[in-house]
Amino acid sequence: MQQISFAIGQLLEWTFTILPALGWFPPIAFSLVIGLGLAYWLVLQGRYNRKAKQDGTIA
After folding, report:
1. What is the pLDDT of residues 28-52, one digit of tens each?
2. Alpha helices in the chain (DSSP H)
C-alpha cells in the first residue's frame, strides 16, 4: 500500500512541475471552459423555462 501511495505522490509531484512552464494557460483555460459551460447551461435553462411557461407547468 505504501508503494502505491508513494507512486501516486511522485506522479502528482512530476505533474505539478509542468504547471510553472505553462504560465497563465491553465487558469485561463479553466475559466473559459467554466464560462462557456455556464453560458450553455443558461441558454438551455431559458429554453426549459419558456417551454414550461407555454405548457403551464412552471412552478
Report:
1. 999 999 999 999 999 999 999 999 9
2. 2-16, 19-22, 25-55
